[in-house]
Specification:
It is built from ten helices and ten strands. Helices cover 40% and strands 23% of the residues. It is an alpha/beta fold and 271 residues long. The strands form two sheets. A six-stranded mixed sheet has the order 6-7-8-3-9-10, sandwiched between helices. A four-stranded antiparallel sheet has the order 2-1-4-5. It has two domains: 155 residues, P-loop containing nucleotide triphosphate hydrolases (Rossmann fold, 3-Layer(aba) Sandwich), CATH 3.40.50; 78 residues, no CATH class. β7, α7 and β8 form a beta-alpha-beta unit. α4 packs parallel to α6.
């Protein structure tokens, strides 16, 4: 009863939070392939919103539409009340939308620390000429970024690898580094594409803890993931996609009870 009551209170708190991100009637096609078809949903502030489905369901395309990698063929996107129509990825990042990618994208010839420092570029507050002549403002800003980067490396458990080249890290460590670099942009909404891929069981547990910590700090998270145990333990709401369409949306407990979801994606058994 205590667990059920706690879950109900959490669901009520999420439902009462303001809407941070809204998608309405999204469509995206590539030639004759309809990757996303009439998808609508809302993400509330400080919530974890999971998107699940088989390969080819349109999950990564949906993240690309949200982040600005792609522009939709139809439909509308708003973030914190602002219309995102036509805004590219870098402008959405300045608004507070960050993401990681299914295929890791790091500066592999730079150090672990410098990769995270690079994430602070959206929040530099110094005159342009300081980049040519490294004056006191540049040095203060650089020191601030390095301090912040070290805090984020400690958060993901990579502080001891600060001086290593990013390309020398294990696959799981590179995923954590990309996670830290995305956090350096100080997002209000973080989009994560298959974060558990390549991680061992211990690393997945650690990732779960970090996502929950972020939620506790008010950062909303949209996560695309095949690891159902992670999804069911971290998500406040789950969107299930099938051939680009919305098959189901609800709290994890309702997803587990949906015969359509269990039959279509999980071979008759969710957990």
């Amino acid at each position: 009863m205590t667990v059920i009551a706690s879950e109900e209170r959490k669901n009520q708190a999420v439902a009462q939070s303001p809407v941070l991100f809204r998608a309405k009637g999204l469509r995206k096609s590539f030639g004759g392939v309809h990757a996303v078809r009439d998808i609508s949903f809302e993400v509330t502030a400080g919530a974890v919103f999971a998107v699940i489905g088989p390969n080819g369901a349109g999950k990564s395309t949906l993240l690309n539409l949200m982040s600005g990698v792609y522009q939709p063929d139809a439909g509308a996107l708003t973030f914190n009340g602002a219309d995102l129509a036509g805004l590219p990825l870098h402008r959405r990042a300045r608004l507070g939308i960050a993401r990681t990618f299914q295929k890791i994208r790091l500066f592999k010839q730079l150090s672990v620390l410098d990769n995270v420092v690079a994430g602070f570029h959206t929040h530099h507050d110094i005159p342009a000429w300081q980049y040519l002549i490294h004056g006191s403002a540049f040095r203060r800003d650089h020191a601030r970024c390095r301090t912040g980067a070290m805090e984020l490396l400690a958060f993901v458990g990579l502080a001891a690898r600060r001086d290593a080249l990013a390309g020398s890290l294990s696959y799981g460590e590179q995923r954590l580094l990309e996670f830290a670099r995305a956090l350096a942009t100080k997002p209000r909404l973080l989009l994560i594409d298959e974060p558990a891929a390549g991680l061992n069981a211990s690393e997945v547990d650690s990732l779960l803890d970090r996502i929950l910590t972020m939620r506790g700090k008010g950062i909303a998270v949209v996560v695309v993931e095949h690891n159902m145990e992670l999804v069911m333990n971290v998500a406040d709401r789950v969107l299930v996609m099938d051939y680009g369409r919305r098959l189901f949306e609800g709290v994890p407990a309702d997803v587990q009870k949906s015969a359509a979801v269990v039959s279509a994606y999980l071979g008759g058994e969710l957990m």
